[in-house]
Amino acid sequence: MHGLTVGSGRIRMSRTLARGRIRRAIGFLAAATTLAATSASIGPALRATASEPPARPLTGWSSPWSASNWTSSTGTPVTDVAKIIGSATSGLDGSGVGIALIDTGVAPVPGLPASQIVNGPDLSFDSQAPHLRYLDEYGHGTHLAGIIVGNDPTTGLKGIAPKAKLTSIKVGAAGGVVDVMQVIAALNWVVQHRNDDPANPIKIICLAYGTDAITDWHYDPLFFAVENALKNGILPVVAAGNSGSTLGRLNSPASDYSALLSVGSTDTKGTLSTADDTLSTFQSIDPASKIDVAVPGEGILSLRVPGSGVDVAFPGARVGENLLRGSGSSQAAAVAAGAAALLFQKRPSSDPDYIRSWFRATVKPLTGTNAARVKGQLSVSSALATSSFTTTALASWSDGSGSVETARGSTHVVHNNATLSGTKDIFGTFNQSAWVSAVNAKTSWNGGVWMGKRLTGDGWTGSSWASKTWAGATWSNLDWAGQTWADDAWNGRYWAGRYWAAGDWSGRYWASSTWQTNNYSAKSWSTHGWD
Ligand SMILES: [Ca+2]
Fold it and tell me: Where are the alpha helices (DSSP H) in 297-400?
C-alpha cells in the first residue's frame, strides 16, 4: 500500500535507561511542510498531550529524511533488489570501497556486521547524551545500512555491497531532527577524512536527506558542500525526495543535478523483471529535469531497530524480529550507493564523474506514469557490459555564498521555543565567508572543532560496537539562542516537563528490555554469526 502513513505531529521521545535511571531530553522539534496525499498515522510514542505548546508539524519520514512509508505491503528482499538491478551475479561485493552514510546513526542490530561499520563523529543533538551517541533511535540510518552492507544469515538479508566499509556520520537525532548546518558540517568532515582508511577510501556519500528549499545553484551553501565532495573524488548519491509532484522540483540537494547521482524509487510490481516497473507514486519529480536513475524503493526489507521511532510508530511494517519494510527514495538511494560501490570496486581509479556518467549511459528504460521524469532504471549488469561512453563533468559550481536560511527550506529545529534560523549554526553566529575559504582549503575541521567550535572529539579514539570509532565531546558553546545545552536539553528537568510525556516511550519500548539488554548487545552479538 502506498501513500500510507507519513508522520506529522510532534515527535516526543524519552527513554529511561536501565542503568542509572537517568532521564534525558532531546528537546528539538523540526517543522516542515506536510506532504499531500498522505494521512497521518501516529504511533503511541508520537501522541500529543494537552499540555504541549502548539504543534509544530514534523514530517521526518519524508523530509528531511527521505523515507516515505513504512508499509505493511508485500516486502522486497534486498537479494531480489540485487537481481533486479543486475548486481547479484556481478562477482562484485564493494571490497575496498568506503561509503559515508550521513544519516541518523546505526544501531548494533543482528545483521549489521561490526567489521563493515565505522562510527564516524556523531554531530547530532543526541551526541550530548553519551549513551545515545552513534546509535540510531529513529531507525532510519540502520535500515539504509542494512541495504548497503547488511549480512544476516538468520533472515537471508544481504546488502548490495556487503564488503564495502560503511562510515556512519550521525547527524539526525531522535525523530530524525537535524539542521542543515549539521549536514553541511558532516559533508565537510567526510571530505577531510576520506582517506583516513587507505584500504577503504571513501568514494561515495549516501545522503537520504533533503529540504524543500528553492535554491539558486550559483550560491547555495548546501550545494557548495556537496560539490566540494565531488571535487574531492567522492560521488554524492542523493535521494530525490518523496513529495510526488507537490513541490514541482526535487528536494535539495538532489536538485543539484550536475553534481551528483539523484535517485528515485520504483515499484517492482512484485516481479524480478524490470519491464513492469514504474516510478513510485510518492517519488518527487521535477517537470523540467530528469532524475538520474531509479531503483526499487518500495517495501524494502531491511534491518529493524526495535524500539526506534519508526519501529514503534509502524508496527505493521515489522517482519519477524529483525526486519522492517521501508519505502522511499531513501531506500532507493541506499541501493544506488551500494551499486556505485560495485562500480568503484570494478574500476578503482575512477573519479565520480566517470561513475555517474557510466550509470547514466547504461540505464534501462522505464515506462508508466512520470517515466519521462527519470533517465531510466539503474543497471549494474548493463554498466558492466558497456565500456564506451562519454563522461560529463560539472561545469559551473556554487560559490557557497548563498543564504543559509534559504537552504533550510521550511525545516527548522526548535529548542526551548527558540527557532534556529538565519545565518547561524547550532552554536550561533556563523562566519560564512570564512567557511567558504576554509572548505576550499580543507581546513573547516581541525580535530573535533568545526569553524572554531567544538562539535565532537579530536580523532579515532572513541569506543563503540563498531570496528572503529571517532571520539565524542561535550558541547561548551551555547546554542543559537544563547541557551546552555546542559541546563535546557540534557538533564531531567526538560525531559519530564511539558514537552515530553515520559511514559510513552521510555518504559515500554526502549529501556527495560529492548535496547540495552536482550535484543541487541547480549543476544545479537554473541549468538548470531557475524560476518
Ligand atoms: Ca518488476
Answer: 309-313, 329-346, 352-361, 380-384
